[in-house]
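Re: the request from the purification team.
They wanted to know what the chain is likely to look like in 3D before they choose a buffer screen. I agreed to run a prediction and write the result into the notebook, where they can find it.
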Amino acid sequence: MTGGCPEAGESAALRDALAGYLCELAETADPLLRTADQMRWFHLLSAEQDNTHAALRWAVVRGDAGTALRLVRALGYYWVQLGHGEGDGLAREVLALTPPDPPTKATAEARVICAMLAAGWSYDLESVKEQLIEAVAGIAAWADDPGDLHPLAAMGEPLLLQFTGGREQVEALYDRYATAGDPWLRAMGRFYRAQHASEMGRVDGVEEELRVALREFRAMGERWGIALVLTILADVIDLRADDAATIAALEEAVAIALRAAGGRNLEILGADVAAQCLRAGLVDEIMVFVLPVLLGDGVRFFSSPDLGRIDLEPLETKRAGDLTVLRFRVPK
């Protein structure tokens, strides 16, 4: 389909029909985005992005919460993997609509996904806390087996618990997810269980758990999951000072992510991972976001002890309100 959505003068019935077609297309693509065939479907959704977004805006204008929620549920994983962006704003608009009554499992899942996306790439959960609490409560009736939920919606409850301080409950949830019937949720449960244990200072068994998650993602052919696990695995391997294995994991993660990104910029988040990638010569540019706030504590930038001095080349300085963005090139 290449003609784009109908112009304003065309009939509402035609727009509704097109929105229905695009809903079905996105719903067909969504589960396949977590399989070995994922890149074909990512490319297809990228080609149809203007159309699906126009259809979603049309549903919002019409107050058609059912269609809008269907589209968000089907496009949520696509948006997350390709960097949020416009999807965050669209999710906020859909979240403001009155949901269908009575709710269905699909609309309840979509409300969770909407709230997660509405938090934005910086995960500003405070701004959507009440909506996320309400949405997570709304899927409780269908959450006896987390493997029966849309896997992205299933991640809403642990995200909320981490934000509200329910660490023990989070750990119990990850234990359930690690045995779920859905292979993606099972691998992700293992990944987050290992990461949670590491954050709590329990390193025994973390590397082994990550390697199991990695095997499961490899079996699915799920490139994003493979890259995600490899990135954290490199951090864990680095603790035992195996530089060759650390760099090998990072290089594979970056190579996979670059292929999956299809020419888009690849962002490396987190000071520790960024330092490791710098050591391995994998970083081209550094962006620093500065706000006039002193937090008093936190992880130092690039604090790896064996990372020597690097003279960066200033490229750009931007101001947007209180935010200053500094952009540098890393010399090779």
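For the purification team: The longest strand covers residues 313-320.
Please add any questions underneath this entry.
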